[in-house]
Amino acid sequence: MAETTEILGIFDHGATAAAGARAVLDDGLGKVVAYSPVPDHALDQALHTKISPIRTVVLIGGILGCATGFLFPIYTVLDWPMITGGKPLISIPPFVVIAFELTILFAAVGGMASFLWLAGVPRMTGSGAPDERFTNDKTGISVTCRPADADAVRASLERHGAEEVKG
Amino acid sequence: MSFAKINDDILRTLRAPGPLWYGGVVVAISLALVGLYAFLYQARTGLGVAGYEHPILWGIYITDFVFWVGIAHSGTLISAVLFLFRARWRTAVARAAEAMTVFAVMTAGLFPIIHIGRPWFFYWLIPYPNERQLWVNFRSPLVWDVFAISTYLTVSAMFLYLGLMPDIAAARDRIKDWRQPIYKVLALGWRGTSRQWHHHAALYGFFAALATPLVISVHSVVSWDFAMAILPGWHSTIFAPYFVAGAIFSGIAMVITLLLPMRRAFKLESYITVHHFENLAKLMLTTSLIVGYAYLTEFFVAWYSGNVFEQGTFYDRMFGQYWGYSWMMFTCNVILPLLLFIKAFRTNLAALFVLSIFVNIGMWLERYVIIVSSLSHDFDPANWAGVYQPTWVEGAITVGSFGLFFTLFLLFIKNFPAVSITEMKESLEQPAGADPANS
Q: A58 and A109 share a domain?
């Protein structure tokens, strides 16, 4: 694997950071990771064009929950048939309540699990962001590049308004 | 206002607490312990120490259960429904309301357990393969309750935690005392990368969309505990919407009761403003009108049905042995909130605080009236003479539930950001660090 170096640009504004990140990517200078204290629309558009796959997991979770909510009560009443209240064993209306709740439960749990997976958490080793200001008021662009490109990356980040460049 | 100032101002609330907070926690824990003592006494002696008397076999415990589930609802309304409607004022109050939701559901969940005769067998309500080879009865509203409440608790706790994660990371990077390792674990290594935010935003939207039907469904299911029975005063199709409106009404009152002192103690006046309280007051007024309409509809339906038992129950409710509770409920929930039509009243925080306490009392009484007055006036006139007299055990457990709720809430607001730092920063819509005064 080729030797790489990491350059960190610290920006005051999310929008300028996004422009800096875009420029580095367009010039093919290296890989970019952006850090920000809030979800930043400009950064999101610059770096993530795909829709989050969480929606698919939520949908699958919901369908599984709904199916479980009907099939599980049906299984239990057939496993031990006992008439209560003169109602049929498989009485769908009351099972709708169970299916409704489980649809939401499974969708939410599925969504949460897929979020943890996609966001790469929990991540117990190492610290959080590379600079503590990134959870406060600064936006950061971390570029992993070849040492030969380091100067070009630094110049590009500074040109786009980085107030500080490290590494 | 800038990102850094928001960060400083909100994380400042996590600094070492003063005597007021310690005093509050001591009082709250003491009350919780009183409740715990009473519960242990009841568990040891038997349910006879509660004031149940045939036919009134549901009493204060079920009242407390419905009350606390109701309190939970405004948190989800504010955090999920208002998020979907892009009501931006919710930002300031959402976190505290979400936390309140989780703690209220936790408190509520204890009451069915306290209410059953052998609380150590409460897990029999959960369907799992067992040596008795029995399954739960899925046609029973009590089993629906188990599913509704546990789903609600799980989803609202995850929703709270999802929003909290970036804020815990902000606390981790700022608070340098003994809590830092705890924040480090709880932040789950959050780094604030654009990839994390990308998925965070997607899931937050889905959680809002999933929690919204829960606002409607959970209290509907709770209302069916009553409406599915054939008892006059309970067996009614309006129960679900009537309970949902009442739940949101009481929940908003509790949000006001909690936020006003919190805002003052933490000096958050520039974040939680009079405008926010006025909006809450408007929501409270709206739901109060719905609740008032439901009260009147119940009476109309009883009269129009021509059913003598239904009519008898409602006559008894207003003029029978529980008349005092009913009229007090009507005054607190329908008449006093009409003051909210006056803008000067809505923006007077002291008045709003007092009114919110009255609404809390009124909504507790509403559940008491629905449960006790209906049970005491069933189909058998021989039963009508009995009067339910709650005992000190039920009183102590009720007081204890408030103690538990306030303990959890106080611990939360001193250790976690009680206003969402992330959403506050987002609401600035300024480039990070820019001060609108200078730009």
A: yes
